Amino acid sequence: MGGVDLWQNEEENLDNFDPQSIHDKMLEVVSISGTWHLGTLQVGLSRARRIAQGQLIKLRFSAPFPVQVDGEPWVQHSCTLKISHHGQAFMLKRAIESSLGHATAIVTDVLENAETSQVITASQKRALLQEMALRLA
């Protein structure tokens, strides 16, 4: 979800779930109702529905069901999925937190992709980046 906090640790949540933590070895399960819901989550207009939290999550499917785990989608047929904490790795996070910095990072990524795909030249990319820097300064 591109950095969207689906669990949202906030004091105003009236459910019985604990705040998420990378140190508690707990898994959080949320649901999203479709692509429109994804878009509203991305811009902060909606929230994902909290379903479960625990060290072992069991999901029983009695019919084919669309599933996505860590960005990987598939259609799951009848089964019982058991998901548990297996280990932990440190992850890097972008230092850019402001919306302007985030937008700049996205535009830079798009321009680099355009150059790699030979849609624009390296000099065109440099010119666009310089123009953007001037306008955002």
Description:
The protein has 137 residues and is α+β, with helices and mostly antiparallel strands. It has a domain at 99-136. 30% of the residues lie in helices and 24% in strands. The chain is built from 3 helices and 6 strands; from the N terminus they run E-H-E-E-E-E-E-H-H. A two-stranded antiparallel ribbon has the order 1-2. Strand 4 (65-69) and strand 5 form a beta hairpin. The two termini are 29 Å apart. The relative contact order is 0.10. The model has no long low-confidence stretch (mean pLDDT 81). Keywords: ATP-binding, Kinase, Metal-binding, Nucleotide-binding, Transferase, Zinc, Zinc-finger. Residues 1-73 form the Diacylglycerol kinase accessory domain. This is Diacylglycerol kinase accessory domain-containing protein. Pfam families: DAGK_acc (PF00609). One of its GO terms (biological process) is phospholipase C-activating G protein-coupled receptor signaling pathway.
